[in-house]
Design a protein that fits this description.
The strands form three sheets. The chain has a six-stranded antiparallel β-sheet with strand order 3-2-1-6-5-4, with helices on both faces. The protein has a five-stranded mixed β-sheet with strand order 8-10-11-13-12, covered by helices on one side. Strands 7-9 form a two-stranded antiparallel ribbon. It is about 45% helix and about 20% strand. A hairpin with a 2-residue loop joins strand 5 and strand 6. It is α+β, with helices and mostly antiparallel strands.
Length: about 425
């Protein structure tokens, strides 16, 4: 009769509220009720909760939440028994409370159970202030339509679940893709470090041997009594440059042959404080701010190597703050939670020149530097030490100016020996 146009509208509905409204609109066409109400069970099914109201706004039972044990309520009884109720004259029918019907001037009621996915989920009621002129064929039409509406709700719920799962899968895939990208990046850096380490070791040894001979001969010349004073200053310069070359060679060897980790029970905050105190002469006019989370637990780390990490990062920050008005370096520690566990996080920030865009993606690769007197090994060694401790380090530029280094270690650090 009326249902064709309503079915077309129903098929395009995307929410329970919209679907039940269409049901009420059809009932309005068929029987002209004054109000419609939808009650659905809560999760524990101990209450029926009024979720939607249509037409005149009132609540026959006097409450938007009805206990499932209140069996005298036609709303509860319809849902519990999973059978429809047709009350053509509320003044003569014992299935309703006459006092409530009289209060709201309800002459007739139709109550229909709502079944979704094979389970009764609640009741939809239609209230009449005039006596219902019941028509069985129209009622069958309404019942069939509401059953179809329940199937549409099933479809809407399934689409929501699929969409949610799809979004969750997308998020997981994005996370996995990011982790894979990070792992590939680490592998790439590790491979480059290994190859360069072997090269550095060979070069360093090739340089070290003749350098030792040169130094020995210069020392011999310096100790000879009959040498002329005119070479004294030149010899000092040569000796100074030899010492510098030895220092460079030692840096190469330290990079090529990392020391074995000697783990001890240490507190990150204490190490940071110790390093800051050690570098206090270098800070000069820099404002150093510490915000260290006191509840951080001790972890197993190599004390000397970890001190070297903080020294390297802070020396870079000090260098970046040269010729900056009101230079500031901040060091913060905290605990963060991730799905795989808790992590200690160390953040080092400065308001210096920042990291050049052309090197920021390879800042932890060996020999990456912008300093004329730098070797570009400090941050490479830092990266390797942190990785060997099961941690991670990320460098970035700050929007407000300067650089930021984020370091994370598992709270229960497991180290590679």
């Amino acid at each position: 009769m009326y249902t064709t146009e309503f079915y077309e509208t129903l098929l395009s509905a995307s929410s329970k509220e919209e679907i039940f409204r269409i049901c009420f609109n059809l009932a309005k066409k068929l029987f002209n009720p004054d109000a419609g109400r939808v009650y659905l069970f809560n999760e524990t099914r101990d209450f029926l909760v009024n979720r939607f109201k249509y037409g005149q706004s009132y609540n026959i039972d006097g409450d938007d939440k009805i206990s499932s044990s209140q069996f005298k309520s036609i709303i509860v009884r319809t849902a519990i028994e999973n059978s429809f109720q047709i009350i053509e004259d509320t003044s003569k029918d014992r299935r309703v409370e006459k006092r409530i019907m009289q209060k709201f001037n309800i002459k007739s009621i139709i109550a229909i159970p709502i079944e979704i996915m094979g389970i009764t989920q609640g009741t939809i009621t239609f209230d009449f202030k005039k006596k219902l002129n019941f028509d069985e064929s129209k009622f069958d039409e309404l019942i069939t339509f509401i059953k179809t509406a329940s199937l549409i709700i099933e479809r809407v719920e399934l689409i929501k679940k699929v969409t949610t799962l799809d979004n969750q899968m997308k998020e997981e895939l994005e996370k996995m893709s990011l982790k894979l990208e990070q792992a590939n990046e680490k592998l790439l850096i590790s491979g480059r470090m290994s190859a360069l380490g072997q090269l550095a070791s060979g070069v360093a040894h090739e340089i070290k041997n003749p350098l030792a001979v040169i130094k020995m001969l210069i020392d011999t010349l310096d100790n000879e009594e009959d040498k002329g004073n005119k070479f004294k200053d030149d010899i000092k310069v040569i000796k100074s440059e030899i010492i510098r070359l030895e220092d460079i060679v030692n840096h190469f060897l330290n990079f090529a042959r990392p020391k074995k980790i000697q783990k001890t029970d240490e507190n990150i905050n204490d190490l940071i404080t110790e390093v800051v105190d050690f570098l206090k002469i270098k800070f000069q006019n820099i404002d150093v701010k510490l915000d260290l989370y006191t509840a951080i637990k001790n972890i197993l780390i190599d004390r000397n190597q970890m001190k070297q990490v903080f020294i390297n990062i802070l020396l870079n920050a000090i260098e970046a703050c040269k010729n900056i008005n009101s230079p500031v370096i901040e060091i913060n520690t905290s605990i963060i939670s991730r799905p795989e566990g808790r992590y200690i996080k160390i953040v080092v920030l400065d308001n210096g020149k920042g990291i050049q865009e052309d090197i920021i993606d390879r800042i932890f690769e060996p020999f990456t530097t912008t300093r004329d007197d730098g070797l570009g090994l400090g941050l490479s060694i830092t990266y390797r030490i942190i990785a060997d401790h099961g941690g991670n380090i990320v460098a970035m530029n700050r929007l407000t100016g300067g650089a930021k280094f984020d370091i994370t270690f598992p709270e229960k650090t497991s180290m590679i020996n």
